Amino acid sequence: MADFIHLIGAVTLLYVKEALNLGELWWGFNNTSYYIGSIIGGIITLFIAKTIRKHLIFSMAIGSLLFSIFTLIYGLTSVPILALLLCVAMGPAYLIRNVAQQTVFQINIQTEHLPKVYASQDILLSTDIGLSIFLMGFIADFVGVRAVYIFGSILIFISAILSFTLVQANKRKLSTVDLKYYLQALIWMLIAVFIIWLFTK
Question: With a threshold of 0.70, does the pTM exceed it?
Answer without folding.
Answer: yes
